[in-house]
Every structure is written in C-alpha cells, then in structure tokens.
Design brief:
The protein has 378 residues and is an all-alpha fold. It folds into 3 domains: 1-80; 85-202, no CATH class; 221-377, no CATH class. Helices cover 69% and strands 0% of the residues.
Length: 378
C-alpha cells in the first residue's frame, strides 16, 4: 500500500512543479535528466513504501532532495548563460539589467546600503519603472543618459558587491571562520560573473544560485568544525571541573552549590563530579579520537584550537590550561589530583586568574597564535 497521498503530495509537489517549470522553458540536457531521475526515484519510493517515516528517511538517506535541487540549479544557470559565440538579445539584456536594479532598490529601501543611500531609492525606482514601461533596451539606455541617470547605473553595479564586502569585513572582525571563507568566495563569484556579464551586472538568478551552492559546499565542513570545537570544549570543562571539585572553594562554587541548594546537596554534587568525570572524560576522549582521528595532544595543535585561542574564544587562562594538561594523566576512574595541583588551582582562584584577561574582548587583528605546549607534549 503506497504512502498516503496527503503526505506525498505535500512533499513531492514542489519538485513536480520545478520539473514542469524546466519543461515549460524547453530545457533539456544532463541536468534535466538528473532531475527526472531523482524525481522518478522519489515517486517510486512513494508507491513501494507504506510508512511515511520510512519514506522520508529513504529520501534523506539517498540524498534525493539535494540531487534534484543541485541539478535544477545547474539547469537554470546554464539556461541563463549565453551560448558560446551567441550575443544576448536586447530583451535579455533589459531583463538582466532591470532585475539587478530591482535588487538594488530593495537594498536601498531597506537601508542595507546605509541610511545615506535611502534617498537614492526614488531615482532607482524611476529607472526601473522606465525600463518596465515597454520601451526597447537601446531606447532605455538613451533615455537614461538624457535624463542624467547614468550615474545610478554605476552605483547599481557596485552596491551588491559593497554589501558582500561589508559581510566579509564583519565576519573577519568576529573571527567567524567559515563565514569568512563563504564571503570571500561570494566576492570572487560576484567579480567573475560581473566580468562576463553585459554592462558588468551579474544576472541576479545566477548570482543567487551560485551563492547558495557555495553555502551548500561549505556546510559539511562548517558543521564538522563546530562539532569538533564543542566536543573538545567539553573535554576541557570536564578536566577543569574534576580538579576544582577537590579544592577548598568547591562547596561554595555555583557549579556545585547553585542558589537554593543545601550544604548536603552541594557535597553530593562534588562527590558526583569527583567520581564520574574521569569515566565521562575517557569515554568522550575515545569517541573524539574515533570520529575526528585526533589524540589529546593533537587537539591542542589543531587549527580549531588555534583559531579559538587566537580569537579570545577560549575563556580559560594560560595558567589554567597548563593545569589542565598536568591534570590529564591523573584523571582516571578511581584517581584523584595531586595535592600540588589542588593547591595551585586554589591559589589561582584566590587571585582570580582562572579566566583569560582578554576573554570577551574583540579578537586581535593579528596572525594566528598557537598555544605554547610544554616540550613534553611536542
């Protein structure tokens, strides 16, 4: 019995509409064939399976959504590009130009190009309305020149690029690693499309689709990067908490003595940390090595750690990080830190030296600075 129509219709209709769209445009080729193959597989699964959860899982597992969407994007990009040796028609030049200016108009009106550019919105709107009035592209260009609107054309070509550059600068200021990579590639893409486009104005559809492709290509690496950071941060915290749980200040620390907790509850929380953190740490360490192929010493030299350390996104001070390194071999089920380590963490807390003085401050405008490991770990 097939999956109920109320579910399959909602899921597959958008893809059927896209397939009809390329058919109505008369598009053909390998990308359109790939779309048809992906949709055909979706339709076959809908008929052969009787459970929606299984159906949805199979679509995801076989990556049919992404295969279809990727082929659809390539088909539209190919359709938008002029064939080798073929000059674009006046109608296509007009449409490409006006779509670019309509995007500029939206940017101006929303304030995305700065408050000072909002006053330019009426003039850009007049330009768009002129182009949409039914005149030919040559007449449009002549009237634009006669009415002194030529400067708007130059501004329209740069506003989108300036927006990309602003996004890149913002990402660099915040040391957002994969945002930086994405915006760098977007600027390069814009320049490539502008160089090949009539009047230096990239086709908005092509720009949008290729920008989305960049995001899709970077997403797996972005997620891996973030996952690694979250997990080695947890490893650091487990060691920090385990060492601190043996210190004299532990019964008064909010990690074990939250508001409203009794002395007895605080001591139970401390005992749990002392007893459970070593096993938890070793289990997570083994998983980290299995999934990311990095040992404990290699974490400290990995690019994720260096990036976070340089950009003030690791809150622990260097002194505390050194304590963590010395605590590591002692953090075993049934073990305990040495009296010397306990005394040092107590002294560090008394001096309020456990957090980095630069924690929370804007990242430096400097090259990457790796954490200086002791010679025994090199």
């Amino acid at each position: 019995m097939p999956v109920e129509l109320m579910y399959t219709e909602a899921m597959l209709n958008p893809f059927r509409d896209m397939m009809r769209d390329v058919g109505s445009r008369g598009l053909t080729g390998p990308d359109v064939d790939a779309m048809g193959a992906a949709l055909g597989e979706m339709e076959a699964l809908a008929q052969s399976l009787d459970d929606f959860t299984t159906f949805s899982g199979q679509l995801t597992q076989r990556q049919l959504f992404s295969k279809f969407s990727d082929a659809y994007s390539r088909a539209l990009v190919a359709a938008a590009a002029p064939r080798p040796g073929e000059k674009p028609s006046d109608d296509s030049l007009m449409e490409t130009t006006l779509r670019a200016y309509e995007q500029v108009l939206q940017t101006y009106e929303s304030g995305g190009a700065g408050e000072g550019m909002k006053k330019m919105a009426p003039a850009v709107r007049e330009l768009v309305e002129l182009g949409r009035s039914g005149i030919s592209f040559p007449v449009f260009l002549r009237l634009v020149e006669e009415r002194g609107m030529a400067d708007l054309l130059s501004g329209a070509k740069t506003v989108a690029r300036e927006g990309l550059l602003e996004s890149l600068a913002f990402s660099r200021a915040g040391w957002a690693h994969y945002d930086i990579l994405q915006h760098q590639r977007e600027v390069e893409l814009y320049d490539q499309l502008a160089a090949a486009a009539p009047l230096g104005v990239p086709d908005p559809l092509t720009l949008t689709l290729e920008t989305e492709r960049i995001a899709w290509e970077l997403e797996p690496s972005r997620r891996r990067w973030d996952a690694m950071i979250r997990r080695w941060e947890t490893l650091l915290d487990l060691l920090v908490d385990w060492l601190d749980a043996f210190a004299a200040f532990a019964p008064y620390d909010p990690r074990w003595n939250p508001p409203g907790a009794s002395r007895e509850q605080a001591m139970e929380n401390i005992a749990d940390t002392q007893e459970c953190n070593p096993g938890d740490f070793r289990f997570r360490e083994a998983l980290f090595k299995e999934y990311f192929s990095l040992t404990w010493p290699e974490i400290w030299q990995h690019e994720t750690f260096t990036w976070q350390y340089t950009s003030n996104q690791i809150s622990h001070s260097d002194e505390r990080l050194m304590l963590v390194l010395e605590t590591y071999p002692l953090c075993q089920p049934g073990g305990r830190p040495s009296p010397a380590l306990i005394a040092r963490t107590e002294q560090m807390h008394a001096r309020k030296a456990h957090f980095r003085s630069t924690n929370g401050l804007p990242p430096p405008d400097s090259p990457l600075t790796p954490f200086m490991l002791p010679p025994s770990m090199l």
